[in-house]
Amino acid sequence: MTQPVHVGTYVPEEPTQPRDPRFRAMAVSGGLAVVLCAAAVLLPAPYVLETPGPTFNTIGEVNGQPLIRVEGRESFPPSGQLDLTTVFVSGGPNGAVNILDTFRAWADPSANVLPEQLVYPEGTTSTDVQEQNAVAMTSSQESAVAAALAHEDIDFTEELSVARLAPDAAADGILREGDILRSVDGQQIRNITTLRSALNDAEGAPAALSIVRDGAPMDVSVTPRESSEGDYQLGIMLASTFDFPFDVTIQLDNVGGPSAGTMFALGIIDTLTEGDLTGGRHFAGTGTIDSVGAVGPIGGIAQKLVGARAGGAEFFLAPAANCDEVTGNIPDGLTVVRVETLDDAVDAVETLGAGGDAAGLPAC
Q: What pLDDT score does 257 carry?
């Protein structure tokens, strides 16, 4: 009768045959594969990955609270959806990605893989990225409020100041960071359009600027330079400070950057006006906005198109300057409308919300 073998009991082994050399080669190959797989999982790759992110309804709620809240003026809770779109960005200062992640992204048509050095300057930290995104988001929200109020003919004030001078700027040595611009050639500077128009109308002639520096008014003269686009510039970056007649609060955490400006502005307009701008339909979109309602280009639009359709959007508002990236990347079932201004965006939403035909609207 065969006896059971207990732990710790010695059992003589059967005589072994000489091991096939192929077995050793297979074992070495298997071990190498394990090492390579471990490297793919553990070793960082110098790439940034962009993938579709979530959408947020600007006329809806986030965590049980309205995303846009107006205080100090009558507002009208709208229905329908005006979704801002986002992109998940991983890699670089956001946390390293590995080789396996990168290969997966290359194989995913909805993802974008970029060399890290093309996206972030050397030495950029996660704190730098968060701070830049937070500043851009705050500026975007303020510009969206200004653009929406301007569209509704609601008065507010905007003060322009010098944020930074470009290298070898026309205004170098004349204007300084922090200077407040009051007038150009005797005309009050109400917004960036006022300044641009005055410089271009003068066709390069010296511009007489009234400014305030350290609390003291003074007059200076700057001769603008013609850019490659044919307009005249002082070579300065401007910051805006607004004074609005009532409060508009936008509540949205963990989303940064300036690209939601156009959708914020649409949401504010729909909240300030009676009735539903959308007609109850589902819109999504993207685009920066300035205080005079110009819609600017953004990054990651191919991923935003996918995210918008995954979120259920029927229509997508795309900045005109992004149309070359839109072409060939439109998901089935999504209609894209090209917009250059906030007026374009409002017209598109009103037309489609009322059951109008998208064929009559600009497309990419």
A: 85
Non-local CB neighbours of 210 within 8 Å, separated by 6+ positions: 181, 182, 183, 184, 217, 218, 219
One of 3.90.700.10, 3.40.50.620, 3.30.540.10, 3.30.230.10 is the CATH number of 47-153+244-360, namely 3.30.230.10
Residues 6+ apart with CB under 8 A from 344: 295, 338, 362
Residue 12: per-residue pLDDT: 37
DSSP, residue by residue, 172-206 = BTTB-TTPEEEEETTEE--SHHHHHHHHHHTTTPP
Average pLDDT for 170-195:
95
d(CA 253, CA 266): 19
- Specify the CATH number for 157-243; select among 3.20.20.60, 3.40.109.30, 2.30.42.10, 2.40.30.20: 2.30.42.10
Rounded to the nearest 10°, the torsion over CA 315, 317, 323, 327 is -10
pTM over 0.70: yes
For the chain, the average pLDDT equals 88
Nearest to 195 by CA among 238, 153, 228: 238
Q: Are 291 and 143 in contact (CB under 8 A)?
A: yes
* Domain boundaries defined on the chain: 47-153+244-360, 157-243
Q: Evaluate the CA torsion angle 147, 257, 67, 244 in order and state its sign.
A: negative
Question: In the block, which residue shows the tokens 């007026």?
Answer: 343
Whole-Å CA distances, 193 to 98, 200, 290 = 46, 10, 10
359 in helix, strand or coil? helix
Distance CA 22, CA 306 (A): 49
Distance CA 336, CA 334 (A): 6
Q: What is the DSSP string of 136-148?
A: HHHHHHHHHHHHH
Residue whose pair of structure tokens reads 């001078």 in the numeric block: 165
Q: What is the CA radius of gyration of the chain?
A: 29
Distance CA 121, CA 68 (A): 34
CB contact at 8 A, 73 and 323: no
| DSSP result, 315-326 | EEEEEGGGHHHH
Asked if residue 74 lies in contact with residue 65, where contact means CB atoms within 8 angstroms, the answer is no
